[in-house]
Amino acid sequence: MGGGRASRSALRAATECPAGGGRVRTVSAMDNETSAVEPSAGSVGRVDSTDDWRILGAEFIGTAVLVMGGPGAAILAGPEIGLLGISLAFGFSLAIMAYVIGPVSGCHINPAVTLAFLLARKVGPRQAAFSWVGQVTGGVFGAGVIYGIASGRDGFERGGFASNGWDRDGFSGLGATIVVELVFTALLVLVVLSTTSRRFVAPMGGLVAGLTLTVIHLVTIPVDNTSVNPARSLATALFADTDPDALGQVWVFLVVPLVGAVFGVVIWLMIDDDARLEDTMLDNEAMRDARDAADRLLD
C-alpha cells in the first residue's frame, strides 16, 4: 500500500470520519462558538464553495453505491443470497464508501446522519444542505441504474422494488414500523457519532458503522424492509410499482428516521463523556434541566 506521511495522513482522514463528519475543531465567531469539520488531508482552512460541491459529489456517489449495493442486491439477487446476503450488502456498501469518500464529505450517505451531525454542530448548515442534495439525487440515480439493469432481465417485474412499507408484502403494521425506524435510526446515529470520539480507535470506524448497518438490516428487514435512511426509501419508492403504494407510504420513512436521529443525538450526549450539550443545537433551558435532573439521579 506504500508508506510515507501522505498515505498515513490520508488513511487517518478516512478512518476518522467513517460514516459522518470526522474530527471536530472549535472555532469562535464573535460570541458564538460553533464546530467545524477538520479539513481532509491536503486541504487548508475552512470549507469553501469548491469543497461544498466536492461534498455534494461525494455524497451523491456514496448514496448511489449504497442503493446499488443494498436494494440492488435485494432486487437482482435476493432469492440467491437471502436475508444475510442482503444485510451484508448494505453493510459492506457503507463500510467501503466510508474509506473512499470519508475524507471528502464524512460519508454520511443518509439524511438522518447528516441531521444528527448538524444538531451536534459537527457540520454547518451549508454543508448539511449540500450533503442532503447529494444524498437524494445519488439515491435516485442508484435506483435508476438498478432499474435499468433489472429491466433487461427476462420476467422482471418492478413490484415493490425493495421499497419500504407496512401491512403489505408480509411486513408488520404501522406501529411496529414506527418503533423500529425510531429505535434503529437512533442506534445508527449513536454509533456513528461515537466513532468521532477522541477515544475511539480511528481505523475501525468504517468497519463498525458497516457492521452496525448489517445488524440493523438483519433485525428489521422482516418488519418493514429496513429504512433508517430517507434517501434510500425515497429512491426505491419512486421506481416501485403503483400497486404496493410505496410512494403513499414513504412519508413514514422520511419523517421517522429524522426523529430517530434527534433521539440518537440525545442518547449520545447522555453516554459520551466528550459530548457537551452546550456545544449542540439542542442546548436550551429545558434540556439543561433534564440533564441536571438525570445527573442528580445517577449521583
Provide a brief overview of the structure.
With about 300 residues, the chain is mainly α.
Task: Please tell me about this protein's structure.
This protein has 299 residues and is mainly alpha-helical. It has helices spanning 5-15, 49-105, 111-119, 125-151, 174-194, 205-224, 230-239, 246-271, 285-298; strands at 24-29, 32-37. 48% of the residues are buried. The chain has one domain (13-298): Glycerol uptake facilitator protein (Up-down Bundle). α3 (111-119) runs parallel beside α8 and α5 crosses α8. It has nine helices and two strands; from the N terminus they run αββαααααααα.
CATH homologous superfamily - what is it?
Glycerol uptake facilitator protein
CATH class: Mainly Alpha
Q: Determine the oligomeric state from the structure.
A: single chain
Structural class designation:
mainly alpha
Instruction: Characterize the biggest β-sheet.
Output: 2 strands, antiparallel
**CATH domain topology:** Glycerol uptake facilitator protein
In the CATH classification, which architecture applies?
Up-down Bundle
Low-confidence stretches: 1-48
**What's the number of structural domains?**
1
Strand order of the largest sheet: 1-2
Which percent band covers the strand fraction?
under 5%
Total of DSSP H or I helical runs spanning 4+ residues: 9
Give the overall average pLDDT.
85
Number of strands: 2
N-to-C span: 50 Å
Q: Topology as H/E string?
A: HEEHHHHHHHH
* Rg, nearest Å: 19 Å
Proportion in helices: 55-70%
Rough shape? globular
Topology:
Blueprint: H1 5-15, E1 24-29, E2 32-37, H2 49-105, H3 111-119, H4 125-151, H5 174-194, H6 205-224, H7 230-239, H8 246-271, H9 285-298
Antiparallel strand pairs: 1-2
